[in-house]
Design brief:
Blueprint: E1 24-25, H1 27-35, H2 37-45, H3 54-74, H4 81-98, H5 107-125, E2 136-143, E3 152-161, E4 165-172, H6 181-184, H7 186-200, E5 206-213, E6 219-225, H8 230-248, H9 266-270
Parallel strand pairs: 1-3, 4-5
Antiparallel strand pairs: 2-3, 3-4, 5-6
Helix pairs in contact: 1-2, 3-4, 3-5
């Protein structure tokens, strides 16, 4: 067991350097595998790297700014808007050194302004009090599931509010459907709940999904969910079993559907990539 009250992790890598696909698993790997096994093959087996999209980069830039805001509060320091924006602008530049983005003419300035607008909106409308000290910020956690015959589960939790309320930040182009958003994110939330329990020995108090919506007038939509149930835990373990079985059998079949329009591996799939 480890404590969550550690200094924030300043890395986006959730996996240990020596991991393999059946010894370590995460919510992102599970979601990718079960949405399209061929996409999983391109991304995690062949480790194909594609240029980052503008939307993905904006999401990461906003996320980094909110991480900085949470870290300042975790350290008990006063919020400094100018320092936060300076960090945001610096991150905008350095973030493209490792993951270049192909911008259209004039697009970068427009997207940067929209991204910072989302941050400003969140700081204005957030339900998190400015004086509230987080229990944890951007913390990497792992859970050994060997006693269940399963691989190690890893993940990075965005924010844990006092009392064990787990927060995940998301950016989206449209407001999430209230009846679907928790269901669509069940795998991720269940993973976070299990990781929190492993790290603290306590049950999480619940979850909050903070969607920063990129509408003409940006807005914040907060969706709440209770602590995970035993049935959700069981279903999550079955997902992992299906995942490890498929990877061991090298079962990488495609799953054509509406999601293909936004897939970075569309061209490779159309060419009949190996399965």
């Amino acid at each position: 067991m480890i404590a969550l009250a550690n200094p924030p992790v300043s890395t986006n890598r959730a996996f240990p350097a020596d991991d393999n696909l059946t010894s370590v698993v995460s919510a992102s790997r599970l979601n990718c595998f079960h949405s399209c096994r061929l996409k999983f093959y391109f991304r995690y087996v062949l480790e194909m790297v594609k240029p980052g999209s503008a939307a993905l980069f904006v999401g990461k830039a906003v996320h980094a700014a909110l991480q900085q805001w949470s870290t300042v509060r975790w350290r008990g320091l006063a919020h400094d808007a100018e320092a936060l924006k300076a960090g945001f602008l610096m991150g905008w530049v350095t973030g493209q050194e490792d993951e270049p983005v192909s911008w259209e003419a004039g697009e970068e300035d427009d997207q940067q302004a929209k991204a910072w607008g989302l941050v400003e909106m969140y700081l204005r409308d957030t339900p998190v009090p400015a004086e509230e000290k987080p229990e944890a910020v951007e913390v990497r956690v792992e859970a050994d599931l060997a006693k269940h015959g399963l691989p190690t589960l890893v993940g990075i939790i965005d924010l844990v509010r006092p009392g064990g309320r787990i927060v995940d930040f998301k950016t989206s182009a449209a407001s999430p459907n209230a009846e679907q958003v928790i269901h669509r994110n069940e795998t991720q939330l269940t993973a976070y709940g299990l990781l929190y329990r492993e790290a603290t020995g306590k049950h999480e108090a619940g979850f909050e999904l903070h969607h920063l919506v990129k509408t003409k007038v940006p807005k914040l939509v907060v969706s709440e969910a209770p602590a995970i149930t035993e049935s959700q835990k069981t279903r999550f373990f079955r997902l992992i079993e299906s995942y490890t079985d498929g990877v061991e059998r090298e079962d990488y079949v495609p799953s054509p559907g509406l999601q293909c329009s936004a897939c970075e591996f569309f061209a490779e799939c159309r060419k009949g990539g190996a399965v």
